[in-house]
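Team,

Forwarding the record for the chain on the shared tracking sheet. I've put the sequence and predicted structure together so nobody has to dig through attachments.
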Amino acid sequence: MIRRRKFTLDKAEIAGLIAQHTVAGLVIGLPLNMDGSDSPRTQSVRAFARNLGDIALPILLWDERWSTVAVERALIAADVSRNQRAERIDNAAAAYILQGAIDALVAVPQ
């Protein structure tokens, strides 16, 4: 997971990770409102994805609603302390979003 800074720095970090690993595409969490509509943050994420267009990889915007809630419930069920949950929640939510996208892509009939 990359912590957002300035776009040019973020893009350079993404390009560096792509160069180091075998990357088939990017999955970016899309923060929709609970009713499915866009918010200013959603529009910002869409613009970020558009600006990555010259990376020449497929980019999938994936609905991230409920990801943090689902992960937090799982961590609570695993009896993870509040402090440890705070440290792990963002990475766990990113993994949850990625797994949801992978599951959906695998389920698509060929």
